[in-house]
Amino acid sequence: MKLRYDYQYGFGNHFATECVPGALPVGQNNPQKCAYGLYAEQLSGTAFTAPRSANQRTWMYRVRPSVDHGAYQRVSFAERAPGLGFRGQIATPERLRWQPRDDAAPDRTADAADADTDTDFLRGLFRIGENGLPEDRNGLSIYSYWCNTSMDGEAFYNADGDLLILPQQGELVLQTELGMLEVPAGHVAVVPRGIRFAARVVPMSDTTSTSRGFVLEVYDRHFELPDLGPIGANGCAAPRDFRYPLAYVDRDTLQSSWRIWAKFQNQIFMYETDHSVFDVVAWHGNYAPFAYDLDRFCPVNAVRFDHMDPSIFTVLTCRSDEPGVALADFVIFPPRWNVQEHTFRPPYFHRNCMTEFMMNLAGEYDAKSAAGFPPGACSLHSIMSAHGPDLESFARAATEQLRPKRLPDSTLAAMFETSRMLRITKEALELLPLDRTYTSCWRDFPPATIPSS
Question: Which positions are annotated as binding Fe cation (predicted)?
Answer without folding.
Answer: 350, 356, 387
